[in-house]
Structure to design on (170 residues):
């Protein structure tokens, strides 16, 4: 069997603290390494269009919900695990760039919405496609069946950890 870099780390822990070695350690370290590779891709692709990863996340979340591409700032913050201050800074930069706009709710002036502008829709689609292509390049050497099996196993793992979709089929 071929070995990865995590195997080297685990071997060292097996000597130093053998009681810490097990599937949980190996899974955590491998997911961490893979997440790092994916974060590198996102950083590179978003930087190429002048965005930060947080700005990309906001544009992506707004585009993903479909027309009229609008969410409340609090929903954006909670969905992206940002603080209210963090989301405010990101939204301010995106608004200055003309890719989002803020608008009061027509029925309730206490409610504010963040909406993609037409320019924002274009930018969001361009960067989502660029990131997706980069991810496809990363995984290109991996056999397609292994990709499908891994997706299924990771979904099962997340569900077992309580990370279920709010609505069935979502």
């Amino acid at each position: 069997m071929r070995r990865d870099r995590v195997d080297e780390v685990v071997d060292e822990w097996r000597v130093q603290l053998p009681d810490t070695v097990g599937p949980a350690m190996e899974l955590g370290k491998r997911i961490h390494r893979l997440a790092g590779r994916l974060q590198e891709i996102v950083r590179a692709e978003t930087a190429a269009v002048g965005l930060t990863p947080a700005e990309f996340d906001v544009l992506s979340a707004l585009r993903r919900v479909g027309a009229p591409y609008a969410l409340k700032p609090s929903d954006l913050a909670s969905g992206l695990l940002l603080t209210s201050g963090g989301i405010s800074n990101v939204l301010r930069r995106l608004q200055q760039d003309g890719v989002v706009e803020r608008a009061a709710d027509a029925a309730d002036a206490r409610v504010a919405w963040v909406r993609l502008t037409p320019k924002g829709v274009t930018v969001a689609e361009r960067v989502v496609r660029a990131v997706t292509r980069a991810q496809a390049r990363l995984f290109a050497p991996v056999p397609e069946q292994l990709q499908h099996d891994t997706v299924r196993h990771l979904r099962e793992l997340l569900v077992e950890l309580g990370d279920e979709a709010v609505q069935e089929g979502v």
Notes: The chain has a mean pLDDT of 92.
